[in-house]
Amino acid sequence: DDDIEPLPIREEISFSRIKCANHALAIQYVQVFSDLLDEWQTIFVKYITLHDNVTQAESQVEACDDLLDVFVDDVAATVLLNNNNDRNSDEFRSYLGSKQPYEIRRPVLGDELELVRGWIAPLKASPNPAMNALGARGDDLCKNADAAVIVAANAKQELRTFLLIGEYSQFIAKVNGTRKSIHGELGKAKH
What is residue 101's predicted lDDT score, i.e. its pLDDT? Predict the structure, then answer.
């Protein structure tokens, strides 16, 4: 939305400042808009910081997903190795059901993470050392993925709060109120 993006707001403030500077009755309001431009700088820096936090958190989620995708392939390969490449073996179906590994890897975390989380206990309980090692690795991957998902959700919420009800929203209300008030004052002065 253009009403959420900060650059158009800066353009509106700058336009109002220039318009006031070029109008004899409004020249007294130039400093008001200059102050709003200074305040916009602070708001913009916070916006960029929060936006970068979301980008970094989403990147971490993607990195966790990439590692989980490799893990899915490793579990499938190990189970197939243990069962003479029989995709219809009970063990293979207990982990992957009727799906191929690529079908499990497709979503970014979400369902994939939930499915892999269900593999951890049986992998750790397996008498096969390779399966046990996969269980420990999968447990770590799930914990890291859970943490990344929480960080991403929190970063998105912090940005959303800033934009919709926080400092940015309050700044927009201040800018709109200031412009409306000055416009009203100038309207009275013309008559």
Answer: 93
DSSP secondary-structure letter at 85? T
Band (pLDDT 50/70/90 cuts) for residue 60 is very high
Indicate the burial class of 113 (C-beta count within 10 angstroms; 0-12, 13-18, 19 or more): buried
Which contacts (CB < 8 Å, 24+ apart) does range 74-79 have? 74/134, 75/116, 75/119, 75/123, 75/134, 75/138, 76/101, 78/128, 78/130, 78/131, 78/134
Question: Measuring CA to CA, how many Å separate 71 from each of 36, 129, 141?
Answer: 52, 16, 9
Choose among 69, 139, 61, 133: nearest CA to 101.
69
List the one residue out of 155, 123, 168 whose CA is nearest residue 54.
155
Q: Which structure tokens are listed for 176?
A: 């709109």
Query: With contact defined as beta carbons under 8 Å apart, do 120 and 138 qualify?
Result: yes
Tens digits of per-residue pLDDT, 134-177? Answer: 999 999 999 999 999 999 999 999 999 999 999 999 999 999 99
**How many alpha carbons lie under 13 Å from residue 83 in its C-beta half-sphere?**
18
